[in-house]
Amino acid sequence: MTSTIDPKSIGRPARPHRHARTLTGYFPEKDASGKDKWPRGDEKAWKDGQRSVDKDVKSVTRNFVGHVQTSLARQAYNLDDFGAYQAAALSTRDDLLVNWNNTQLTYTRKSPKRAYYLSLEFLMGRTLDNALLNLGLKETFSDGVQRLGFNMEDILEQERDAALGNGGLGRLAACYLDSSASQELPVWGYGLRYKYGIFQQFISTDGEQLEAPDPWLDNQNPWELPRLDVIYDVRFYGHADRLNDGTPRALWQGGQEVLAVAYDVMIPGYSTATTNNLRLWESKPKRGFDLNSFNAGNYEGAVEASNSAQAITSVLYPNDHTYVVLFGKELRLKQQYFWTAASLADIIRRFKNLGKSMQEFPDYVAIQLNDTHPTLAIPELMRILIDDEDLRWDNAWGIVTNTFFYTNHTVLPEALEKWPVPLMEHVLPRHMQIIYDIVLDFLLAVEKKFPGDRERLARMSLIEEGVPKQVRMAHLACIGSRKVNGVAELHSELVQTTILKDFVEFEGIGKFGNVTNGITPRRWLDQCNPELSTLITNTLKLKKSVWLKDLTKLEGLLPFAEDKVFRAKWAAIKQRNKERLAHYVQTTLGLTIRTDAMFDVQIKRIHEYKRQSLNILGVIHRYFTLKKMTAAEKAKVNRRVVFFAGKAAPAYYIAKLTIRLIVNVARIINADPDTKEYLQLYFLPDYSVSLAEVLIPASDISQHISTAGTEASGTSNMKFCLNGGLLLGTVDGANIEIAEEVGENNVFFFGHLTPAVEDLRYQHLYHPVPIEEKCPALAEVINQVSTGAFGDGGVYEPLLNTIRQSDYYLLTDDFDSYIAALDMVDEAYLDKEEWVKKSIRTTAKMGKFSSDRAINEYAESYWNIEPTSVPPEGY
Ligand code: 26W
Question: Can you tell me which atom of ligand 1 is nearest the CA of 410?
């Protein structure tokens, strides 16, 4: 079997059971005369709308059947798995709604300080399983659908991922919403309701990535509530005239006006009645179409305005770290403003309902900026306070700088957002005026503290000189916020000593901090690895809801690492998770994977800094090493199955070439009878949250091998370790803190450290050593690729040249230690008992990485908000 991937077979998992059937047990038995006992006894309660929150199997099935017949207008004798999913979602939604209403009512009555998480991305994945878990209805529901003749797992498989994000940043936002609700914190998310999520990835037979749109709303979305009553006007373009009346006010008029319509997504907390809200905005034309043009026969002109308005929330931008300086990407700027303007208008309206003065705004509102994408909220709040609320400049600036908090997610220079000044002046003329006013005040203050330091002023300005001039969004986010944080210890340190160093010197270190990222153990352990979760519950002798909410309780597993019986159970679960993955690959791709091998996984966006290239070159090295071995030598080798998955930004040529190389290497080595027993390689297309949920629990070892100092945190590293997978990585991001927790002897580290990186890059440029001398093993591998061992070698030259030439990501420096680390992994794996001990100890020490811990740090040390509990039955 080769690994040639047939593009037709790729994509979202197929729907396994399309065929319709009759709901078992729904039709009543016949009575003595052969007539149906109809209608069924419970129907009256259903019609009276008496839906109980306190569910039993009977009420679950009743509600389910009710939705089949009413909401879906389908017949109980004719329902397929997809219909069953829809009915399941709608009945679960009914329960969520009760809690959601109670929660909003509680917040309105108690008026606690609230926090708002502004993120352009929320990578939610599927909802049904999570909603049932959090509601405590999983077993009941599963029983219920089973009685109706359905299988819960098949139903869950019908749901499409909500893939409104690129990667780590978007998934982090989703984990934080889950934790906020679980910790009963009054937190709402604000984002955009993209019509198309992250593109679907297909792989052509020659290994090329092809992109297709992700029309995730085509099947309708049962999880959103359209709020046609919650709408705001958002303006673009036009002209802004200062009033020059002794106030800083201006009048912004004309241009394009677009409507923002709210869609609400309910976010249930785990094992609590708290159900928070994620509000997503959709853009709509303010007026349907232009009647004048229509009457004049200009039909295109008539719909133009409508199209232009709808375009704003049509698609998620697929960029991740690359090409963030988006020249001419006017639509992305419009997205950012549309979203921040609608969200702020909504937040201010809610605040005003409290009847407080604007001065008290920061006492009731904290706004978290997830990266610089929502930074326009800073000049937008200034605009509202000055132009609409008539506040003085300093007063307004005081309110702004006590409201916002900024999290940085990358120090890579190419990913720092900058907007061309001419574009800003065109699209947002009033905001550009305000930004200039902010710059003036700010630079005067810097000059006062560091008199005559012109270079410092140029470095710190919000405007970068050049053609065109550009607004540096990270600088604006920094000076407009109360606090600034990075996402892992090392990363926060780098933020403070590199990109924002001048700001630390100017504003003092107190404003800067760290909140190490976290992941929700509900989705990333209990849902994705139910068997392990059950074993943990039984072993800790705690209720699941206890340890899932206090993850440090996992430490109680430590003594069981010494228990042989426990280890056998632990290992057996890993094995079954491998088989589950193999089954997935068999059914979706038609490929047969061996499961009696170590599963080695690298899944993340494809990027040079993440160094998938290092991994694939390591695989090739292994392949040629195996080829040279005798049968007797090979028999002692550790069998390995290597998995890759991840998307490349559509315009990122080198990343796409990397995928191509992986796929073509797979084609050759999986077909090679000399080696295929010992080494297999797969590129799984269309990586998603749902695919991660299958891959992560199956992994023995996962790779997090970024060049030191480039990966801000990483969060999948935490997911693997929580599921008992060991980590092979560089001394970077959260890998460092994971090793601190689980112990360095349970982590495989390699490579140069961050402080060496700058110097090595300098050496590459000014004292280059030929690769053959510096790293012969790598030179040999590169030579094999180049001379066509895996198909036309010429194709890969641009990729290979990045390594032969400046080698910015230091493959030539780290390759030898990488290979040595892989050998250590093999050696360790051969001692199965010892390996399982490491696996147990790793899981046991992952408590720190719960997103509950992280969100509590934000709540306490940043936002100053408190838990606000919701009575389960309402008032
Ligand atoms: C404009 C396109 C774009 C989109 C996203 C540019 C840059 C980004 C982010 C800043 C990149 C990102 O997702 N960063 C990741 O954030 C995770 C959560 O904090 C970290 O775990 C990852 O290390 C970091 O790469």
Answer: 10
